[in-house]
Amino acid sequence: MSLLIRAGAVVPATGGVVLERGGVVVSRGRILDVLDARAAAQPFDGRIVEEPDGVVMPGLVNIHTHGVSPSPLFPSGSPALSEERWRANLDRHLETGTTTVLSTCGLGTMEDIAEADRRHPVHVRAATAHTPSALAAARAADGAGLSERHALMTVERMLESGAVAIGELGGGQTLGGGGQDLVFLPAAILARTGRTISQAQARSLKESVLGRFMNERSYRPEALRAAAESSGLADVATEELRELILKTVMPSVGHARHGIREGIELARMLGVPALVHSASASAELIRDLIAERGRPTTIIAGHVNHTSHSADEAVELAIAGMEAGWYAEASVFDLLEGRETVQTRDHWDALLSRPGLVDALATDYGHDGRHDPLIAAVQDVIDAGHRSLAEAVEMVTSVPASLIPGLAEGGAMLRAGAPADIVIARRGDLRDVRRVFVGGEEVVVDGRRATEVRACEG
Ligand SMILES: [Zn+2]
After folding, report:
1. How far is ligand 1, taken at its centre, from the CA of residue 415, in Å?
2. Distance, CA 172 to ligand 1 centroid (Å)?
3. If you count Cβ atoms within 10 Å of the first and of the last residue's Cβ in the chain, which end, N or C, has fewer?
4. CA gap 175, 255 in Å, rounded
């Protein structure tokens, strides 16, 4: 049976338009027509969904996600999440309007990604980071989730079997970032001293030895002594502590930086889009890569708003990238709602207030997967006056889809012939997702998985 959705507004994510009181006709899993107010008001033979205060838009496309498949977790190749956890992560993406994700952990095989794709309504697509140095970086940081089939995989073979992008090149876990502070450095200190330190303590210890840019020349002995004292490690010899920190953090950093370069070279050679981890630890390398130019391809700087940059550094680096033809993705992390990992919106506003500097919005992972929903980022950039409704929707639909060919069939636009991946959200607050359709099937009703709704009713 055909379906007509009549809504307060239709945002097709193409042409920058908003169709007030428009409609969308769905038949056999595809969009049959997109209607203006007059056409939508005509009698219709089929099911009609009336959403007078709703906005209809394409299903959201998230190009920076982790923990959405049984693949090794993160660029550190850490053990995969349990099935319950990765499915719950996908549920949350779906319930908040995302119908396509790019898995940017990067070290899974196509079997890992295809399993998630098959077993969940969200379209799960693969990015690959299987370069020799990226794999070495993973093993140096963790690598406990890598089996032989992961370790022997290559970027070329992944692309042949369906991966659509190269990435995430580098990551906090391998570049001495948050993953080091949270997991690896505290574990090394515990193993050596029997004492437990917090993430903040690990960070101040690390930065006293390597600075914000993970550079050995940044060593400040007084700062290390002070950090050791406030971490309950005053009795450990300073030089010994420095050695331990260097030995824990730096091996993966060197490999990871080299892996970024390998990935970019492959992207240029093969003409495939790449997503690069932008942070203070990769900033110098990114500047070098921008300056080198080379054969054109789509290079996306991931989370250009990473708070290891200062806000000014973030803007400066994003401008340099834009001038060289790079694209920029801003990640919401948890800076709007959760605020466990990111407590400032300075970087976000500094970048998004400049027209054209940020191309796409994504989520990344946040602390233990607790990132804000992508739709909250859309609502925020509208509320903050950074973008119009049509522009904001395009940043999470047709723009990311166009940056990565093959990611979303139909280009994540509402137009005749495209798959009926559709979101209806309340216009007053888009975070209130009413319904989600994937391939014409209603999979979310009132913000919850439709199967669960049925199960409760039955
Ligand atoms: Zn990253």
Report:
1. 33
2. 6
3. C
4. 9
Give me ligand 1 centre to Cα 65, in Å: 9
Mind listing the pLDDT tens digit of every residue in the chain (458 residues)?
A: 899 999 999 999 999 999 999 999 999 999 999 999 999 999 999 999 999 999 999 999 999 999 999 999 999 999 999 999 999 999 999 999 999 999 999 999 999 999 999 999 999 999 999 999 999 999 999 999 999 999 999 999 999 999 999 999 999 999 999 889 989 999 999 999 999 999 999 999 999 999 999 999 999 999 999 999 999 999 999 999 999 999 999 999 999 999 999 999 999 999 999 999 999 999 999 999 999 988 999 999 999 999 999 999 999 999 999 999 999 999 999 999 999 989 999 999 999 999 999 999 999 999 899 999 999 999 999 999 999 999 999 999 999 999 999 999 999 999 999 999 999 999 999 999 999 999 999 999 999 998 755 444 43
Which residue type sits at 93? H
What are the backbone dihedrals phi and psi of residue 120, each rounded to the nearest 5 degrees, phi first? Answer: -145, 145
d(CA 355, CA 315): 12
Distance in angstroms between the alpha carbons of the first and the last residue of the chain:
24
Residue pair 412/398 in contact (Cβ under 8 Å)? The answer is: yes
Q: Which tokens belong to 100?
A: 């396509």
Element (H, E) at 4: strand 3-10
CA–CA separation, 251 and 134 (whole Å): 12
Q: Is the peptide bond before 168 cis (omega within 30 degrees of 0)?
A: yes
The tokens 């963790």 sit on which residue? 142
Number of alpha carbons in the 13 Å side-chain half-sphere of residue 167: 26
**Ligand 1 centroid from CA 303, angstroms:** 7
Q: Please give the Cα distance from 255 to 262 (Å, whole number).
A: 10
d(CA 440, CA 458): 23
Cα(263) to ligand 1 centroid in Å equals 14
Residue (of 83, 200, 89, 77) closest to 145 by Cα position: 77
Is there a contact between 61 and 395 (Cβ–Cβ < 8 Å)?
no
* Six token digits for residue 219: 């060593």
